[in-house]
Design a protein that fits this description.
heterodimer; A: about 170 residues; alpha+beta; Ubiquitin-like (UB roll); DNA polymerase, domain 1; 2 domains; five-stranded mixed beta sheet; 6 helices; 5 strands; globular; B: about 775 residues; Aldehyde Oxidoreductase, domain 4; Aldehyde Oxidoreductase, domain 3; 3 domains; seven-stranded mixed beta sheet; 19 helices; about 25% strand
Chain lengths: ~170, ~775
């Protein structure tokens, strides 16, 4: 329930400290989008589709289900934080090379779920990859090329230690 | 092209390159409708009916007007222009003012400072009136006492009818060795595109309106916006933003969203944003038409098909929208790619008090193909012939065989498609009889194989031919970069990439020089809708046409540089060269510099009109319905869990003759995505309405009970089988570089192949989708096998 009261919340987004003035009922999804992190998409608003997945202290969560007030002091990663046009993450390159992107609406959430998987488990089995992407609904690709993209990026964290972030 | 495409190495065609839209999407930088911001932007929410049927309605907006942040509440009487959404019959009001005909029907628009304020106020709009019992099934719609939803050219509640007759089936029944009569049913299917509907609208100081957003068909949207505002189309510009999936669900209904947004912008003189939440997108947007299809087919002793009688009834929902043309495609393809000696197809689409049904990948064909391909298997079973062999004996296989409408086709390749899928799944080794014993939970999972064939007429065909043309505009800049405007949209299927590859090939320009602009109605003439798997052929040919004009300029300049005759100019990866002296080439960049300095024409519009088609709708329904067909075959291997009776698809081979794969990897992506959507249609997807579904909730009839991803079950990554996409390439003479199209065919044949596999596994026939465990359980109980 939204009230007029305003509170201050501080968290780290993509490595930078950010301060927000929020209402107690605000969803993390809305706070991030209003702050310009438009890669965080709203697909359903009830935690089913995964389009709004972000990494909260390194773990993938649906930001539509997280009250913004809950992330005080936490570290958040969005897709904006893992690759840039000049320096895309190897996982993003693998998605491109494998044809894993069609309409693109589920892509940021899928990248983050894949990122968390490969960081913690550099050489996942096929079933582990499927499980990691189970929460990212995709209506375009039939998932085949997304699984191939994650498979193709196995070991990318081991090879590129620079992508490891503090606290993850 | 002077030399034939097969003789030379292609520059871009046939290469699995990365699509131009991909990098922004991967980096989270692509701007979708909900991401757009404007100075002073207001937010719109739609107030909707909470019942499915109500007459003589009164709409009370007073409470909503006094809610925090509300700037304006809009009802039908505020519409300055046409109050109905322009389409085939134009019977759907933008905002209901007299009757409510479906649950979720829009009654008012609330404009407020924030989206949340607009949503809260929309819930405060009160609708009162006389409730009536909504009509929820096609049987009820036709019943003598049913409520009249629609009165048109036909009898009560019938939006449209079609009739195809070739020969007299009655003459063939006595001489047929086996004749079967069956009834099949399919449910609603929800598109479930990941991005919900959304639009931004704004007016400028010249009184022009600009609408941007998520859509498949900018020219439909332009019509709708001009219509609701009573403006000249020349004052309405529609621009498609990055669109998060469509599948038909953003074909016609996006016109409603855009019309509402434009109306709100005009009446508040402010930029507005209208973004749907998932629940309203589910309850109010179009779905795949549910169907009831009765089939009577026969075969002789040699296993050759004799005659077919097919009766199709589609549930059109509350307004006719695209139903007439959906019905036509369903009808024309209902007899499948088979040789019939005689046939009769009668079809109709009827009104019910549910959300209007419309376009969905396959466009009426998945329903009729499910029915026919199930029946073909049932007939093969009666004849005791292997269903694959039965199809091989009976499919259209030569250029003299005719379709239901009496059309001959060029190089039909179903046999080749069947052979490829059979080889991939090892049909001959694996196909065995059904398990007919008791299904105990502790037995091994039961496997089965099923196949299906289908054909798909690409483009709008005879009943849509007025719209079957497309334009393009191509301009080569002095730095040799190339801008291309097209009238069809990128909705995730890869249209921009395909157009870039075609432009690159035709101009002999490096692919990275090509920039495909977003679709903008002010830059390209009406190119028809982005539907019917038509974009590659239509916009592709228009782009080629424009590029060929520019290429003449480039060849003229290249000939001067190389000091040879223009007719001697050829191109390859390096650029332009003299065929008599192929070792020296001039790069595209260099030729452009020379041509620009020589004041050559470096821009051109392009235009393409589809080859003529015909359909005798007043007579026997004969004619050349479509100018080309994609030929398809599927084989699926499934496993049924004896404990839960869940069907799991293990492998699907899906073969399609698409003429030419411009980007083979992306074609495979279309096949894989279509197959999985087809698998959802086969196994899990169903919309539930109160009054039709047992429900513990006490709600009036006609309320959608599962408007979201927790109740409406789409396949996830955990549900995918091993998918084997197979591309066949028999060139289409009028296609750009021989290409046809691939968007829809992959979905069409999946459900019947799965139903046939269930039959092959357990010896039971389920004639209604989805093939959920409850259906299998009921059938096994009936047979006393549990």
């Amino acid at each position: 329930m939204k009230t007029d009261s305003i509170m201050t919340m501080t968290c780290e987004i993509n490595g930078s400290e950010s301060v927000f003035h929020i209402h107690p009922g605000d969803r993390l999804l809305d706070v991030l989008r209003h702050a310009g992190f438009i890669s965080v998409k709203e697909g359903c608003g009830d935690g089913n589709c995964g389009a709004c997945i972000i990494l909260l202290d390194g773990r993938p969560v649906n930001s539509c289900l997280v009250p913004a007030a809950r992330v005080e002091g936490c570290a958040i990663t969005t897709v904006e934080g893992i690759g840039t046009p000049d320096n895309p993450h190897p996982l993003q390159e693998s998605y491109a090379d494998h044809g894993a992107v069609q309409c693109g609406f589920c892509t940021p959430g899928s990248i983050l779920s894949s990122y968390a998987l490969l960081r913690d488990n550099p050489h996942p089995t096929e079933n582990e990859i499927k499980r990691a992407l189970d929460g990212n609904a995709c209506r375009c690709t039939g998932y085949v090329k997304k699984l191939a993209a994650v498979r193709g990026a196995r070991g990318c964290f081991a090879a590129d230690g620079a992508n490891r972030r503090k606290g993850e | 092209m002077k030399e034939s495409d097969s003789e030379r190495e292609m520059i871009s065609i046939g290469r699995s390159v990365v699509r131009p839209d991909v990098p922004d999407k991967l980096l989270g930088r692509a701007i979708y409708a909900a991401d757009a911001m404007r100075q002073g932007m207001l937010h719109v929410a739609t107030a909707r009916s909470s019942v499915a049927g109500m007459k003589n309605i009164q709409i009370d907006i007073s409470a909503a007007q006094n809610m925090p942040g509300v700037q304006r509440v809009i009802t039908a009487k505020d519409i300055p222009g046409n109050k109905y959404v322009p389409l085939i019959v134009s019977d759907m009001p933008f905002l209901a003012s007299e009757q409510i005909r479906f649950y979720g029907e829009p009654v008012a628009l609330v404009v407020a400072r924030t989206r949340q304020e607009a949503k809260s106020a929309a819930r405060a709009v009160q609708v009162t009136g006389e409730m009536f019992d909504p009509v929820l099934t096609v049987e009820d719609s036709a019943g003598p006492d049913s409520y009249v939803i629609y009165e048109g050219d036909y009898e009560k509640n019938i939006f449209k009818k079609y009739h195809i007759q070739r020969g007299s089936p009655d003459e063939f029944w006595p001489e047929s060795h086996v004749v079967i009569e069956r009834e099949y049913r399919t449910p609603h299917q929800e598109h479930a595109y990941l991005e919900t509907q959304g639009m931004i609208a704004e007016l400028d100081e010249n009184g022009e309106v600009q609408v941007m957003g998520s859509m498949q068909c900018p020219f439909y949207v332009q019509d709708a916006v001009a219509s609701i505002l009573g403006l000249a189309k020349a004052k309405v510009t529609v621009i498609q933003m990055v669109t998060g999936g469509g599948f038909g669900g953003k074909e016609d209904v996006s016109s409603v969203v855009a019309g509402h947004a434009a109306l709100a912008a005009a009446l508040t003189d402010s930029p507005v944003s209208l973004i749907y939440d998932r629940e309203e997108d589910f309850i109010a947007m179009s779905k795949r038409h549910p169907s009831v299809i009765k089939i009577k087919i026969g075969a002789n002793r040699e296993g050759l098909l004799t005659a077919a009688e097919i009766y199709i009834t589609l549930d059109g929902g509350a307004y006719s929208t695209l139903s007439p043309v959906v019905l036509w495609r369903s009808t024309v393809h209902a007899a499948g790619p088979y040789r019939w000696q005689a046939l009769r197809i009668k079809s109709r689409v009827v009104a019910t008090n549910t959300a209007p049904n419309g376009a969905f990948r396959g466009f009426g064909e998945p329903q009729s193909v499910f029915a026919l391909e199930s029946a073909i298997d049932e007939l093969a079973d009666q004849l005791n012939i292997d269903p694959l062999t039965f199809r091989e004996k009976n499919v259209i296989a030569s250029s003299s065989d005719i379709t239901a409408t009496g059309q001959t086709t060029v190089n039909p390749s179903i046999l080749e498609a069947l052979e490829k899928v059979a080889e991939k799944i090892e049909w001959k080794d694996k196909f065995t009889g059904a398990y007919t014993g008791v299904v105990r939970h502790d037995i091994e999972p039961i496997r089965g194989l099923g196949c299906s064939v289908s054909f798909y007429g690409v483009g709008l065909g005879a009943e849509g031919k007025k719209l079957d043309r497309a334009g393009a505009f191509v301009q080569v800049e002095s730095d040799a970069s190339v801008r291309v405007f097209i009238g069809n949209t990128e909705i995730g299927q890869g249209a921009r990439g395909v157009m870039a590859q075609i432009a690159s090939e035709t101009l002999a320009a490096p692919l990275e020089y090509i920039h495909i602009h977003r679709a903008d109605t002010s830059r390209v003439p009406d190119s028809g809708p982005t539907v019917a798997s038509r974009t590659t052929i239509m916009s592709g040919n228009a782009v080629m046409n424009a590029c060929q004009t520019i290429r003449q300029s480039l060849e003229t300049s290249a000939a001067m540089v190389l000091n040879c005759a223009i007719d001697n100019i050829k191109t390859d990866q390096r650029g332009y060269y003299d065929a008599a002296n192929p070792s020296t080439a001039v790069s595209f960049h260099e030729v452009v510099s020379v041509a620009t300095a020589q004041r050559q024409q470096m821009s051109s519009s392009g235009w393409y009109v589809a080859p003529d088609t015909s359909f005798d709708s007043a007579g026997a329904g004969q004619g050349n319905a479509y100018s080309t067909y994609v030929w398809s075959a599927n084989i699926v291997e499934i496993e049924i869990d004896p404990g839960t009776l869940q069907v799991k698809a293990l492998k699907i081979a899906s073969a399609h003759d698409i003429g030419r794969a411009i980007n083979p990897r992306e074609v495979c992506g279309q096949i894989e995505g279509g197959v999985l959507q087809g698998l959802g249609f086969a196994l899990t997807e169903k919309v539930a309405y109160s009054g039709l579904t047992p429900s513990i909730q006490s709600v009036p009839d006609g309320i959608m009970l599962n408007p979201g991803f927790s109740g409406y079950i789409c396949p996830t990554a955990m549900d995918i089988p091993e998918i084997f996409p197979i591309i066949l390439e028999t060139p289409y003479e009028h296609g750009p570089y021989g290409a046809r199209g691939i968007g829809e065919p992959p979905l069409i044949g999946v459900a019947p192949a799965v139903a046939n596999a269930v039959s092959n596994a357990l010896g039971i026939r389920i004639r209604e989708l989805p093939l959920c465990p409850e259906q299998i359980l009921n059938e096994l109980i009936k047979q006393g096998r549990l």
